[in-house]
Amino acid sequence: MESFFSDGSLLIFIVGACVGSFLNVCIVRMPKGQSVVFPRSRCACGAPIPFYRNIPIVSWMALRGKAACCKRRISPMYIIVEAMTAILFVALWKVNEPSLFIAYAVFVSIGIVASAIDLSSMEIPDSLSIGLLIAGFVFSFNPLLHDATTHLLSLKDAFFGACMASGLLLWIAIFAEYAFKQEALGGGDIKWIAGLGAFLGPKGALFALFGGATWGCAILLPLLVYSAFKKDKKLTLLSRVPFGPFLTLGALTYLFFHERIDIYFSALDSLTYLY
Ligand SMILES: [Zn+2]
C-alpha cells in the first residue's frame, strides 16, 4: 500500500478517474454526433450540473446514483467507466515506463469508449477506429512499443499488425457470410482490429482475435445457458452480439500478459520469418 502513495499511483488514479469522466461524455455524445467539448454537462432534466456534483467516482457514490436536482437515476455506467479507467491507468503505470504508459493510456481510453458504444449501439464510430490506427502508428515511432531495436522495425510491426489482423478478420467474415448466408461480422470490427494491431503488432493482433473469441465464449456461453433456463429469450444463438468489446478484451489481455503469451508464439517462430 505504501508504494501506492510513493510511486505516483494515487495521482495516476485521480487522473484516470478524470479521464474516465471525459470518456463518459464521449460514450453518450459521440453516437448522437454531438460535440464532446461543448456544452457543459447537464442533467437529463436540463439543470446544469455544478462542478462539485461532477467529481468522478465520488459524486456518484455521494448521490447514490440519483441526480440531486430531480432524483432521476444516474446510470451506473458513469461510475463503472470512471473506476475502470482509473484502475487500468494505475495497472499500466505500475508495469510500464512513462512513455509506454502514455501510449497505452491513450489505447485503453479509446478502447473503453469504442467498447461501450459498440455494446449499446452495435457500432464502432469510424473516428475511433481510424483514431486508434493513427495513434498506433504515431506511438510506434517509440521502438519500445514493439520491443524493436529501431524506429523502422517498430513501424514495420505496426504496419503488419494493422494489415494482418484486419485481412484475416475480413476473410473470416467472407467465409462466415458464405457459410451462414448472413452477415456474421461487421465491417466495423475489421476496421477496429486494424487499430488494435497497429498498437500490438502482428502477434498481439492475432492474440486479440483468438483471445477475444475465447473471452466471448467464456462470457456468452454461461449467459446463453442462463437465458435458456430463464426462458426470457434475451440472448439466443441467433442474437447479434457486438464483437468489438471482446476484441478489446483480448487486446488488453495481451497488453498485460504479453511476456507470458509470447512464449507460446515462439512455437510459431518459423512463421515470423515470412515477413
Ligand atoms: Zn435533473
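^ zinc ion complex. The chain has two domains: 1-95, 124-275. The CA atoms of residues 183 and 229 lie 28 Å apart.
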